Structure formats: structure tokens, C-alpha cells
Amino acid sequence: MLTPPRKSPWRLSSGQKYRHRQRLRRVDRTVDVVYKALAKRGMTAAAVERWKSEMPTEAEMKPRDKYTMFDPKQRSYRKGVHKLPKWTRMSQRVNPPGF
Amino acid sequence: MSWFKITLIRSGIGMTERQNNVLKALGLRHRMKTVYHPVSPDTAGMIMKVKELLTVSEVDKPLTQAEIHAKRQPPKGYYVEKQGVVREDIEGS
């Protein structure tokens, strides 16, 4: 059974943006704790290394990437990040190459 | 030896089968459940799979489930006086 897409405004409210930033920071903190704990014992993990090298932190991200994401179907190629299903529990930080 | 203190703060409902299996493997059955796992690349990989749902900190010693439960209890609001103890702060006792 498919649920129909819900109506949602085209942009985020300032409160949604604030809470979204807090969530981004929480993920940053988690990765940082894991990275430092491993480094202290001279260990590494591929997933952590890859995240550290590829993903920008909340502070490094531009507002454009924080609050919108790539969408090939839009005329501007961007849509609000809240259009992504389960967006409060997903990581969506980088764009495809060239966008 | 140090440990990861891992708490599930966002539910895994509706997430992928794979992520829910990772939560199960970590022993996180419901929200606000806290588990301790040794610091190792294996644990780190599991945390990274579900990092959006967790808070993680590094601790020296894991707490048992009973200790976690005791920590969450509110103060009783009273104490039981022991028999035969003379309290000096009460006059005439």
C-alpha cells in the first residue's frame, strides 16, 4: 500500500532550519567521538575515515547545501531538503559531481 | 580498556532493514536504551551505519543494566533513622 505524498511548504521554517542544524551537529559530534576514541588506541575504521575525508561538517556546509538538495526534476535542480523522506534521520550533505 | 556508551535517541521505525538489523546487533531494542560496547573498528562501523539515530560517548567502564536503572531513579525524599543513635542537633535528646 502506497501512502500519497503529503503536502509540505516549499521551504523550511527558521525553527526547522535550527533543529536541522542541531541534528547535523549531533552527527558531527558522534563521528568525532568515534574517530578520537579509535585514534587514541591507534585504530582506524574505513567508514569513519571515508566520512571524515568526504563529508563537510555543519560549520563547513553552505546554507544552500544544508537546506536544499539536488533534484534532477526541478527546473533549478534544487528542492528543500525536507522533501527527502525521513529527512530528520538521514544524512544529505553533498551534491552529485558538477552540481 | 575504553567503551562506547551508545544511546538510541531516534527510533529505527521505517529505516532500512539493514539499519534495523544493526540496531538489533547493538542491542538497541527501543528508544533511550543505553548499551556499552568496547572501542573497536567493528563497533565503529556499526555506529557509523546508524549514526543519525544515536548519541555516543567514550567511557572508561561500562555500567550494568541495574546500575543504569538505579541512576534513573528519583530521590526517595526521606531517610530512615538508625535505632540507638543520639542526634546532637536536636535539643534534649
From TrEMBL, chain A:
GO terms for cellular component: mitochondrial large ribosomal subunit. GO terms for molecular function: structural constituent of ribosome. Residues 89-99 have a biased composition (Polar residues). InterPro entries: Ribosomal_mL60 (IPR016340). It holds the Pfam family L31. Residues 1-23, 80-99 are annotated as: Disordered. This is (Perigord truffle) hypothetical protein. It comes from Tuber melanosporum (strain Mel28) (Perigord black truffle).
UniProtKB/TrEMBL annotation, chain B:
It is found in: Mitochondrion. Its main location: mitochondrion. Keywords: Mitochondrion, Ribonucleoprotein, Ribosomal protein. The keyword Ribosomal protein applies. GO terms for molecular function: structural constituent of ribosome. GO terms for biological process: translation. It comes from the Eukaryota. Pfam families: Ribosomal_L30. Belongs to the universal ribosomal protein uL30 family. Component of the mitochondrial ribosome (mitoribosome), a dedicated translation machinery responsible for the synthesis of mitochondrial genome-encoded proteins, including at least some of the essential transmembrane subunits of the mitochondrial respiratory chain. The mitoribosomes are attached to the mitochondrial inner membrane and translation products are cotranslationally integrated into the membrane. This is Large ribosomal subunit protein uL30m.
